[in-house]
Predict the structure.
Amino acid sequence: MTFGDGEGTGEDAVGRNQESRLSFTTPVPRPPSPDSSPSSRSGPIPRTHGLRATVVVALVMLFLIAIPYLLNRSVVGAAPVRAGQVVTLGPFRYRPAPGWQIDRGASQADLVSVLVKGATTYRLTPLGRQSSAAGAFRAAARRYEATGRGRIGGDPATVATARGLTGLVAPIGGNTVAGTLTVLVGGGQGLGVWLTARHTAPLTEAIADDVVTMVDSVEVVDS
């Protein structure tokens, strides 16, 4: 019998005991079972959800960008106003504002001039011989109300242009449109100016400024 073998056997036993203790205190982690995974508990997550949201946002942005573009081209045969262009209507003439379009289908030489910008329509029509602004206003109001698009509301107010013409202006009210009727008188002749816009796209400040400029540009041809 030797002490060396005995000691070796004791050390081996101690080592095995230590390995046994380690094996119980530091267990090897087991992989999670498929049934306990988050996806199995909450159901499959659709992969197209994020893509669908992105497509919806892109379509909304395209819609907002395209609407003004399409509105400006919604009138068949409309032509952009040329720089410095002058339109003559019988005894009157005026300068259309840049950025508007001339509706060629609705316009007729010396009879009516129609401009469009988005959802806004600007129409000018000679009213023939008129001795007063009041008479011209009544004639223009009857002509507009005969179309069935709306009625002239409120008492008209006086208006004077930068070129010395005088007249009257009153609001237009309707189920789908709103705007103003303006009449100008000069040289014994009357001119009716109808400005209308759809309720879904009301007048902007820029359009209102354009209208003031165009009204001020009206003059009698012989002046």
